[in-house]
Task: structure prediction
Amino acid sequence: MVPDGADLFWGGFGYQRAPIAFSHELVRQKKRNLTVHTCGSEVDLEIMAGAGVTTRFEIAFVAIEALGLANNMRRRVAEGKVEIEDYSNLAMAMRFLGGALNVPFMPIRSLMGTDMVEKSRYREKKVEVMDCPFTGEKICLVPSLQPDFSIVHVQRVDQTGNAQIDGIVGEDLEGSRCGKKLIVLAEELIDEEEIRTRPDQTKIPAMYVDHVVILPYVAHPMECHDYYDYDLEHLQMFHKMTRTEEGWQEYLENYILGVENHYAYLELVGWEHLHSLRARKPWGY
Amino acid sequence: MVPDGADLFWGGFGYQRAPIAFSHELVRQKKRNLTVHTCGSEVDLEIMAGAGVTTRFEIAFVAIEALGLANNMRRRVAEGKVEIEDYSNLAMAMRFLGGALNVPFMPIRSLMGTDMVEKSRYREKKVEVMDCPFTGEKICLVPSLQPDFSIVHVQRVDQTGNAQIDGIVGEDLEGSRCGKKLIVLAEELIDEEEIRTRPDQTKIPAMYVDHVVILPYVAHPMECHDYYDYDLEHLQMFHKMTRTEEGWQEYLENYILGVENHYAYLELVGWEHLHSLRARKPWGY
Amino acid sequence: MVTYSKIEFLAACASRHVNDRENVFGGTGLPLLAALLAKETHAANANLISEAGFIDAKPRNVPLSVADSRYYYRSSAAIGLIETLGFILQAGRIDVGFLGAAQIDEYGNLNTTYIGDYDSPKVRLPGSGGGNDIASSAKRLIIMMTHDKRKFVKELDHRTSPGHLEGPGSREKWSLVGGGPEVVITDMCQMDFDPETLRIRLASVHPGYSVQDVLDNVMFDLIVPDDVPVTEEPTQHQIDIMHRLDPNGIYLSKGGG
Amino acid sequence: MVTYSKIEFLAACASRHVNDRENVFGGTGLPLLAALLAKETHAANANLISEAGFIDAKPRNVPLSVADSRYYYRSSAAIGLIETLGFILQAGRIDVGFLGAAQIDEYGNLNTTYIGDYDSPKVRLPGSGGGNDIASSAKRLIIMMTHDKRKFVKELDHRTSPGHLEGPGSREKWSLVGGGPEVVITDMCQMDFDPETLRIRLASVHPGYSVQDVLDNVMFDLIVPDDVPVTEEPTQHQIDIMHRLDPNGIYLSKGGG
Result:
């Protein structure tokens, strides 16, 4: 569905609701030259950078946070195989908001005075600092984004595409509305009746949604609020293996290319193990 | 609390969650020269314009919608006692968003080509049309708003100020965050525990809130989703009485100046009648 | 023969401009009645949106306000203005918007704000509301007005919402998202816009009115094609549905458009 | 005598910079531990915010990610990035932000993006994340770093986040909302900024280190006041609380800052 060369809004934030299963599928389908736009994603970016699926990133952050640096990304950047156009989290979130609003830019008060304004990789105009016509202050304009596809992972969706999200939304409300097409990955299918009983719980109305995929454990080894916790053991293994190219290639072969689809991946991880990660009430993890 | 000459963000939209009780109190306290910023409010604007509390409005709309024109506003404008700086609903909502984000303006694609750009009452720069530095298109910048006070009416609030809203939010999320001080009027006090059990239901976190007022039927004769329906009979009476200055003065005397406080107003309207307006499940009205 | 009121006629007429699966801004009053009627007849999957924040609404009672809770239950989402006017409308996702006006000029530009001079207006009208936004960004704009000579003017007292502005190329100059006015429906006739000049053109006259009646009631040069058909009348089926939608006659019993 | 690890020392040291009732960006790692410790000691009503969207969080387990569900339950709101980085941070509502860095210069400007030349970088680091935003807009910025000569440089390889830029008046030039860096905490010392020049100044050295140790490990001219006190040590009470907060030693057992 996603052609080579497409650009994507990539949903989830930090460890939360990362569309890992979708990154696996992009790798298995040997997509090439994708551009990924997101604030801060982690294992999914490592997978896409490592497997050569994505060659350009417009992002604010990549690392496995508390676990450490993003090894694949580090290697691919040093090799010159990946280019990163650097923005801050607020800048990226505002770029998605601007895209969703269909205006060409949004003003922010960050970036100014730093190399975030001065240096750019491939964008002709990465940002524009202007004098505010109302106050005379300096203000930084960031260009809006309307990527070809938005990829967003949610907890629940109905048959028509109305989606509910539990916990934080990160940048996914703006992100889901800024893309030309929206693909929603959901843990669970619910009946339209459930949506229409509490319309103020709908985070993404069906009118934005082009495709829906229902799969369990889309975010594994990351977490999905109210559904399952992160798999710390797997995460640590992933991070350790990616320290070397050989280790990463082994992970890639075992867990992504070597399995036919997401269910085979889950089978490999083990259902009993997955079950042990299920979220407990009222904590949500 | 609100001094003469202050400017306010005024919450609620259309018939929904209008802070009518607050407008009554402003009238009883004989406030003068207030400026009100809102998208589209109705009976509350009529009351404030009619009673001489508010002399400037930056708004998109005033009427009683299906019931007809805003008679008081019409008279006060013709008398030259009220000035209205006209924007569109999107323009006002974006001005609140810009204020909440603490940036001096927001870009929109409306207003251009019309007198909304050409004509202004008292603002030195009402809007600014510029050439987009990224795309070259024309784009309209609207100045952000950070009024002295935001007045917002919600369904529920806890002791510390965390507020929940049922149904639509209108422009109240942006509006509650754009003011220098925030006054929240709530129908019901709930325990902090209830908030902390479902943090993703909090629409206004306590950190924004400066004052909380708990009162029932704040919006009467307008509606409050899940709590009570509008009072069509009272609304029609209000609209009919405001057709003449005499009629309006009679309403003002009877229902606002002639009662000591909101409870005396409710007493006058009648608790049995108010009770008959209570919302039915699952409709919310 | 079907008997119908003026309101019923206009609502039926307007409902024909809503196609199935379109995203429609409903508002209140006649446009809402028209949109609901369309959903009950030929456009069951039209997505009825209220600018207050309701999406895919299926009200069981007719709302009096765009923010009326009657829009809530069984809608698929209830959010806010940034969503509806920004993410949906400004992003070009609205197929059909409806607007009324106190004045219209020959390019379909609208006045809903002031009658008289801006500096000392005689009458303050409701203002733009979401009108300017809808006129700027909806793909198609349907305008509904009572037909009165003083309303079809050569020069607006105030230009609140953009029609085709000064004609060909002028919406493009401001990068407006939407296509501008498509149809004007009055209690005398339907008008559309000449594709060459983007000026108002007579499209059909309602039963009981002549072309001359219309010409007598506009203050600009109306384009009149050689062949002006009579506007289709409502069916009994449509009238029955309207009465079911508005059993208390909140809108149906009203006088004007 | 209280015995403590380096991590415990640094967390206790950082926690003293959080005052009661302040709005604090917690993040993960040491800053989070410091903020949680502050809440358990002298700053019970500090409002712990995570940029992912959690407000007034009271996690019962230490989060590994700013978006970790451990931040959710018993927080008072869970929203998103526009809320935390826009409505809260950019609006000037954050009192204290914490940042780490790979390089810092004498004005407290930070590099968290590249080591080496921008055009062919040797090492890609995490990037700004919310760092540039926090450095731009938090009222006070607390910087935490491991002390290494290669990190305290005359010239950054890449300026990711603004400190005091080129000194007095330069943050004002860009209308930055926040006050800039206030304190730098390393495993050797605490530093603050000379109010006149806005250049880094030694504030206290940790037990076991000398002023000379610090001077040997910076590549710019560090301002050294006449009197440099020894940094306060953690109390047993603080250490006990940290072990209760992180019973599995997720952060406490780690090597570096």
